[in-house]
Write a structure and sequence with these properties.
With 201 residues, the protein is α+β, with helices and mostly antiparallel strands. The chain is built from 8 helices and 6 strands, in the order ααααββαβαββαβα.
């Protein structure tokens, strides 16, 4: 899982006040950032969880009872599990199912960092995805639109800033990474529409 910029996105999300900021999803992400396994079950577990939540300004609205309820809910959904470590203490771990949900959530929060100054180069995302991966192809297109890429052709999208890591992360998540290429090009013959789309002079 990529960690760069992750905490910042979580803080923005947690403080957003939107209806999408469901406590169960927030809790899962916070536990992951806290490098699970770290929570020892018993009297300490809720105290430690609350301390993790205090890293976020918006966490003040979450009570012990709410966090406890979330932990139980995530266990029922098999997003986390309780296991014994080598010292015989019970700890909380995120499951493979939980990690998958976390990666999906990371994509939903994803933003491409814009440098202070454009380097004058274009990033061209191209793909030729087989029909059997229709869902993956449509998911990739959806997220390219969401990230404000300019559709140059049906399977060619343009962005002015470095975005290779983000695009490959998304493509790999949806199982189409090997069909996607990201090129850096110096010039586009007719780039008026592209410059206008990104508000570049």
């Amino acid at each position: 899982m990529r960690k760069e910029g992750y905490m910042e996105r979580l803080k923005d999300f947690l403080n957003s006040g939107t209806t999408e900021a469901k406590i169960a999803t927030v809790a899962l992400c916070v536990l992951a950032v806290a490098s699970i396994p770290v929570l020892v079950m018993g009297a300490a577990v809720m105290g430690n969880a609350v301390q993790v939540f205090k890293m976020f300004e918006g966490s003040k609205k979450y009570s012990h009872k709410q966090i406890s309820s979330v932990m139980d809910s995530m266990k029922r959904q098999r997003l986390i599990e309780y296991v014994s470590d080598k010292h015989g203490q019970t700890i909380v771990k995120i499951t493979k199912k939980g990690e998958t949900k976390l990666r999906a959530f990371d994509i939903e929060l994803m933003k491409i960092k814009k440098p202070h100054k454009w380097d004058g180069k274009w990033r061209l995302v191209m793909f030729d995805i087989p029909m059997r991966f229709t869902k993956g192809r449509e998911a990739l297109r959806f997220h390219l639109k969401k990230l404000n890429f300019f559709q140059f052709q049906k399977s060619a999208w343009i962005y002015p800033f470095p975005c290779e890591d983000e695009i490959i992360f998304i493509a790999d998540f949806f199982g189409v990474g090997k069909y996607v290429e990201v090129l850096t090009v110096e010039n586009i013959l007719r780039d008026d529409k592209v410059r206008k789309h990104f508000k570049l002079s």
